[in-house]
Design brief:
This protein has 400 residues and is an alpha/beta fold. The chain folds into two domains: 2-147, ATPase, nucleotide binding domain (Nucleotidyltransferase, domain 5), CATH 3.30.420; 196-380, 2-Layer Sandwich (Nucleotidyltransferase, domain 5). 39% of the residues lie in helices and 19% in strands. The chain has an eight-stranded mixed sheet, with helices on both faces. Strand 2 (12-19) and strand 3 form a beta hairpin. The protein is globular. It starts with a strand and ends with a helix. 44% of the residues are buried.
């Protein structure tokens, strides 16, 4: 089934036309600077035809028109007409407690996504713009919402609640939601397939490590805990995000520096902390590795802090699940940074987690990097959130 996967941002629209059965990408690209001067579309098809051209895109509707025109173009297009596109899958960041799985979009779903805007004020409004543009232009094509938060809705209450007055959960939805759910679900399913065991019989820790990082404890096929919280700021330190901190630090900083406002502190914790804040070098792990090789002690500290926290989460999740069968590394850093993977596994040998340094140093795509004697399998699994969105969309569209 040919599925158009849409990931709409406030001024951008990423797209892929995929075959849901095997993940073949017919075409993909990006519309950028929507609503801003200099808007343009970037397009690449499976014949390696590439094009970038400027085109006015005052709204997401014009951006989608540009995408559909490119897909049908006589020279570089991949479909003869829009009837070949059988459904559209939309990435939606936040579904709150309303959605624990992907759903066909109707008026009630649109309202529910809008109700979650306070929980994701930067993302859900943009996601809605993309959905509404598609409905306007392709009214007869099934539209599906796939939520970043849905996979984590299986967490038990003891795992997702915060120890604040209960009324704040009831009135404002203050709780752990988790993110990267589509990725965590996809790679856990891929791991089970590789291990030739039912996912419902496995205990897996999935490590989605990149500029934004999160871990998930996947027990018997469902998420029972995850490191990100009510927002993506919680958990391990990230590229520019602080990760877990003592919340009293916020008041302390504001009392110590009268020029700081809550917006300032929020910006600091989200944009100026993490690897960037500790190292002073940057948020890119490649830059940190280079700085470390040149003797930069703060770069070393940042990398050690990151690896330590990831290792700590793996250990805590193993105990919480009552055991561990597999660790999965995925996303930009998890898939491509052998040194980080080695650092994370350092010291876990006594718990039956043994990494093969030679295999780890020579990873190209999907790989098993644990020693044969390791009681816990260690895998590198490239994530493919777009394919997961396409698969969910195809299943729901087929039932319509």
């Amino acid at each position: 089934m040919k599925i158009l996967v849409i990931n709409a941002g406030s001024s951008s629209l990423k797209y892929q036309l995929m075959r849901s059965e095997d993940g073949h990408v017919y075409a993909k690209g990006l519309c950028e600077r929507i609503g801003i001067d200099g808007s343009r579309i970037i397009y690449k098809n499976d014949r390696d035809d590439n094009t970038t051209h400027d085109t006015p895109m005052p709204t997401h509707s014009e951006a989608l028109h540009a995408v559909l025109a490119a897909l049908q173009d006589e020279k570089i297009g991949v479909v003869k007409d829009l009837n070949e596109i059988e459904a559209v899958g939309h990435r939606v960041v936040h579904g709150g407690e309303k959605f624990n799985k992907s759903v066909l979009i109707n008026k009630e779903v649109l309202t529910a996504i809008e109700d979650c805007i306070p929980l994701a004020p930067l993302h859900n409004p943009a996601n809605l713009l993309g959905i509404k543009a598609c409905i306007e232009i392709m009214p007869s094509v099934p539209q599906v919402a796939v939520f970043d938060t849905a996979f984590h809705q299986t967490m038990p209450k003891a795992a997702y609640m915060y120890a604040v007055p209960y009324k704040y959960y009831e009135q404002y939805g203050v709780r752990r939601y988790g993110f990267h759910g589509t990725s965590h679900q996809f790679v856990s399913e891929q791991a089970a397939e590789y291990l030739k065991k039912p996912l419902k019989e496995l205990k897996i820790v999935t490590c989605h490590l990149g500029n934004g990082s999160s871990l998930a404890a996947v027990k018997n096929g469902v998420c029972v805990d995850t490191s990100m919280g009510m927002t993506p700021l919680a958990g391990v330190p990230m590229g520019t995000r602080s990760g877990d901190i003592d919340p009293a630090i916020i008041k302390y900083l504001m009392d110590s520096d009268n020029s700081l406002t809550i917006k300032n502190v929020d910006r600091i914790l989200n944009k100026e902390s993490g690897m960037l804040g500790v190292s002073g070098v940057g948020s890119d792990f490649r830059d940190l590795a280079q700085a470390e090789s040149e003797g930069n002690e703060r770069a070393t500290l940042a990398l050690n802090m990151f690896s330590y926290d990831v290792r700590k989460y793996i250990g805590s999740y193993a105990f919480a699940m009552g055991g561990l069968d597999c660790i999965v590394f995925t996303a930009g850093v998890g898939e491509h940074d052998a040194e980080v993977r080695e650092r994370v596994c350092l010291g876990l040998e006594k718990f039956g987690i043994q990494i093969d340094s030679n295999k780890n140093a020579n990873v190209h795509g999907f790989a098993e990097i644990s020693l044969p004697t390791s009681k816990v399998k260690i895998l590198v699994v490239p994530t493919n959130e777009e394919l997961k969105i396409a698969q969910d969309t195809a299943k729901l569209a087929a039932k319509k």
